[in-house]
Write a structure and sequence with these properties.
It is a single chain. With about 280 residues, the protein is an alpha+beta fold. Helix content is about 15%, strand content about 25%. It is built from five helices and 18 strands. A hairpin with a 2-residue loop joins strand 11 (about 175) and strand 12 (about 180). The longest helix is centred in the first third of the chain and has 8 residues, at about 30-35.
């Protein structure tokens, strides 16, 4: 007795007909296409019994649908890359997609091309340009302000402070004194040109002087000790009277040496006396 050879689904006899074995069951072509065929991941249509099927990681394609999503190159017999989003790419397009992109134009930076890397970002060489004049930086020096890049001349013009002495831009460093900027090399004594950074100095009529030059060239002489009144160290307090000047500690009676600071006194020539000594000496 001959065993029945029928389609598992429609029960049509398969004797002499084309059929497919699916999960150890005999299925006619019509039922296979309708009930059992996998769906193509690309065109979303069933992959029929007569079609050549390709699969990768539980996903299925018609052979003609298995192509690069970018350039449409057939990949049935070619190396390919399956991306996290499910897209299939040829090796060339995949490397382009994964490659670094220019921070300026956002286009791919191809391997071997000239580029510039700065602060973990990358640019085409011709895209790494000054924010102001738009000229490529190339081998020039440059400075950054926030996220913008400037060539040295544009940065000077836009941001640099001008030295109060020479009026030229201060590119780096410099000294700030009384809220005014100076080049370090311009911050010198008016008389001897000695650099003043890190030393004791003073200013007089908008000019800077080292201690020695201020003493010899600018400072008034004390009518008592004849030494300069500099304001440095002892003798900071000064007594001025009718064109005469004294260190406070020198403002003493010439006769009895009594300190006359904040007291009545008598001036005779360049000498000062307390009222008692002036009276005894008949000084008026």
């Amino acid at each position: 007795m001959t065993e029945n050879f029928d389609c598992f689904y429609c029960r049509d006899n398969l004797q002499g007909k084309k059929y497919v074995i699916k999960d150890d069951k005999h299925v006619c072509v019509r039922c296979f296409d309708k009930l059992c065929a996998n769906t193509c991941a690309e065109c979303r249509r069933p992959i029929g019994a007569d079609a050549k099927e390709l699969n990768h990681k539980n996903r299925h394609w018609h052979e003609d649908c298995f192509h690069c999503v970018k350039c449409y190159k057939p990949l049935a017999n070619e190396p390919f890359s399956a991306r996290d989003d499910g897209k299939i790419m040829c090796g060339k397009c995949s490397s382009r997609e994964d490659g670094a992109r220019c921070q300026s134009c956002y286009k791919l930076i191809t391997p071997g091309s000239k580029n510039v890397e700065y602060k973990n970002n990358v640019w085409h060489e011709e895209c790494f340009a000054c924010f102001d004049c738009k000229q490529p930086i190339r081998s020039q020096s440059f400075l950054s302000k926030g996220e913008d890049i400037y060539c040295a001349p544009c940065h000077e013009k836009k941001f640099a402070k001008n030295c109060v002495s020479c009026k030229q831009p201060i590119i780096s460093g410099g000294i700030n004194y009384q809220d005014q900027p100076w080049h370090s090399e311009c911050f010198v004594c008016y008389t001897c040109k000695k650099p003043l950074a890190g030393t004791r100095f003073t200013s007089h009529e908008d000019k800077l002087y080292c201690v020695d030059c201020y003493k010899t060239s600018v400072a008034k002489k004390c009518d008592g000790c004849q030494n300069p009144i500099t304001g440095f160290g002892k003798g900071t307090n000064v007594v001025n009277y009718e064109g005469h000047s004294w260190h406070e500690y020198c403002f003493n009676c010439k006769k009895c040496s009594l300190s006359l600071a904040n007291k009545r006194f008598v001036l005779h020539g360049k000498a000062i006396y307390c009222p008692d000594c002036a009276k005894k000496m008949d000084v008026k």
